[in-house]
Write a structure and sequence with these properties.
The structure holds 2 protein chains of 2 kinds. Chain A has 2 domains: 45 residues, Rubrerythrin, domain 2 (Single Sheet), CATH 2.20.28.270; 38 residues, no CATH class. Helix content of chain A is 21%, strand content 23%. In chain A, a hairpin with a 5-residue loop joins strand 1 and strand 2. Chain A is rod-shaped. By secondary structure, chain B is mainly α. The radius of gyration of chain B is 23 Å and the shape is globular. Chain B starts with 5 loop residues before the first helix and ends with a helix. The chains are: A alpha+beta, B mainly alpha. Chains A and B meet through strand 4 of A and helix 3 of B. The complex binds zinc ion.
Chain lengths: 115, 451
């Protein structure tokens, strides 16, 4: 019984909140290019002072090559919330019908509140 | 058993020698198959020199990540070189970049692979056409040695392979490769249609200037200048003009020319070599990395002076070379385009403040095609010199380049390579100029004989 309540959740403190309504602070992507022409792209806050040089992975000094607006990264995969799983299986009308039916049964005394 | 025993050689080395000899003859007889096997090997070699395993080594394919960056930035943010900012390359250079960019969306590895395959396909196709052209003109079908292959004209295709091998990765991972193959198509088309040649040379010029220099002798040599040369060139250039009107003030189709004028002497340039060599004795350290154009430059009062006057020398030298081309305008057309074009290209390289390794890609169409013509014997020395220029170019980059810029203990070796290469370039330039001069001198006699 206890096992089933963990279904759909990965172990670890992962929030099931979506970032749909969240506005991130304004930021830029700054491009650095090293003498070996390795390209490093780093996001910086629009308020931050952009450093003119950055150390490349190869150890050389990479120089800044201009900035572009930040592109929102692809949404990282996260586990679905229970509600999302439910809406996957059933349509809203279907759910409404079910709810009405259960409420009627509850009122007529056919079923009792949990516990 | 003693090694000097004659029996040992007879029993062991003789069969080995015979085996190799048989293999050689077999390869020469099946010259077409051998060619394509070698072509595949060369392509594999180019790939692996382009992508060194050690991350700290400068990769010859570095420019490809820049190309990818431009396309990636353009597709995501709509910021394009030429359209929104000055560019170091002419407009048509972005066509193959776009091609590779579209099919590899955002993936650098895929971008590089598509680029290499595109270049392999274009060169493979060009060399196949060249081979077929030689096939049509060659009298004998049998070749038992490489000398036979050379005399029949197939040496042209083989030369292209060996030249690629000599240049290494830099050959295929630069936009110059695209311009060069357009130049090759132009030469191949010369037998049938001057119009096509003009179109190809113009397209090459809008991709990377050097190969397009072949256009100038074509202009002087042809009789129907407007119809056969100017008109096709205008048609090929028209999209750029249309784009310019469409974009009004945000358009920089000629910005690649401006980029040249403000530069210092790049360490590999011919003009920088005396200073580089003298640094060995004075112990001065004047190499500075220029982070706007990603090159290493040598900066000293002398070099500044040379860099300043070099602009004028380049113009003057080009004018003199063009006069020599004009002087020889009545010579055989193919010969004139080969000699004149190569002279202009080499002039642009020798008197240039930049001496990037990929510039030497531009010599290949001329050198290879010359070996398929009836004048191949006169071109032998030029082609051999050209081959060694290519070989030393690879030895410098990616070879000893890192020793030079880091003032490594092998610094001396690097500068020696650089000096030898640039001396070879000057020698090649002198040979080509001499041939062009000769071509102009013997014109009256020849034209009387031929008429
Ligand atoms: Zn790097």
């Amino acid at each position: 019984m206890a096992d089933s309540s963990f279904k759909g959740l990965a172990i670890g403190g992962r929030s099931l909140e979506t970032d749909d309504a969240i506005n991130f602070a304004e930021r830029y992507e700054v491009t650095y290019i090293c003498p070996n022409k390795h390209i490093t792209i780093l996001p910086f806050s629009s308020e931050a002072e952009v450093p003119p040089v950055w150390e490349c992975r190869c150890g050389k000094i990479a120089h800044v090559r201009g900035n572009t607006p930040y592109k929102t990264p692809k949404k990282a995969s996260r586990s679905k919330t229970h509600w999302e799983m439910l809406t996957d299986r059933r349509s809203m009308e279907d759910l409404q019908k079910n709810l009405d039916e259960r409420l009627k049964m509850l009122e007529s005394g056919k079923i009792h509140r949990g516990l | 058993m003693r090694l000097a025993d004659k029996g040992y050689y007879v029993r062991f080395l003789n069969p080995l020698y015979n085996m190799l000899k048989k293999a050689y003859t077999l390869c020469c007889r099946n010259r077409y198959k051998t060619f394509w096997v070698l072509f595949a090997i060369v392509q594999i070699y180019l790939y692996f020199t382009n992508e060194p395993i050690n991350y700290n080594e400068p990769p010859p394919s570095g420019d490809l990540s820049l190309y990818h960056y431009w396309i990636d930035r353009g597709t995501q943010f709509g910021v394009w070189p030429i359209l929104h900012e000055p560019s170091v390359y002419p407009p048509y250079a972005f066509i193959p970049m776009l091609f590779a960019g579209i099919f590899s969306y955002q993936n650098l590895f895929l971008f590089k692979i598509i680029w290499y395959f595109l270049m392999m396909f274009l060169w493979g196709f060009g060399l196949k056409l060249l081979w077929e052209q030689v096939d049509k003109s060659s009298k004998s079908k049998i070749s038992n040695s490489f000398t036979d292959i050379f005399h029949l004209g197939y040496g042209s295709c083989y030369y292209a392979l060996f030249y690629m091998l000599a240049m290494g990765g830099v050959f295929s991972s630069r936009i110059d490769c695209m311009a060069a193959v357009l130049g090759l198509y132009g030469f191949i088309a010369l037998k049938n249609s001057e119009k096509a040649t003009s179109a190809f040379f113009t397209a090459a010029a809008w991709t990377k200037v050097f190969v397009g220099a072949n256009f100038t002798p074509l202009f002087f040599a042809t009789k129907k200048k407007v119809k056969n040369v100017i008109l096709p060139a205008c048609i090929v250039s028209a999209p750029i003009l249309l784009l310019m009107f469409a974009c009004q003030n945000h358009f920089y189709p000629l910005s690649f020319l401006q980029g040249q004028s403000s530069r210092n002497l790049q360490i590999e340039s011919v003009a920088a070599t005396p200073s580089m060599v003298s640094e060995l004795f004075t112990g001065a350290h004047n190499i500075i990395y220029n982070n706007t154009i990603y090159t290493n430059e040598i900066i000293s009062p002398v070099c500044d002076f040379i860099a300043q006057i070099l602009n004028y020398i380049l113009v003057l030298a080009t004018a003199i070379i063009l006069f020599l081309v004009f002087r020889a305008r009545k010579a055989d057309e193919t010969q004139l385009i080969l000699s004149g074009g190569l002279a202009v290209i080499l002039g642009l390289i020798v008197f240039n403040k930049v001496g990037s390794p990929q510039y030497f890609t531009a010599l290949l169409p001329t050198l290879a095609y010359a070996l398929s013509t009836e004048y191949k014997k006169q071109w032998k020395i030029t082609c051999i010199l050209g081959f060694f220029v290519a070989l030393f170019t690879q030895m410098i980059f990616p070879g000893v380049y890192k020793y030079i810029i880091n003032y490594d203990p092998y610094h001396y070796l690097g500068i020696l390579c650089l000096a030898i290469r640039n001396c070879l370039v000057i020698a090649l330039f002198i040979v080509v100029i001499y041939n062009l001069y000769k071509l102009g001198s013997k014109v009256p006699k020849d034209s009387k004989v031929s008429k």
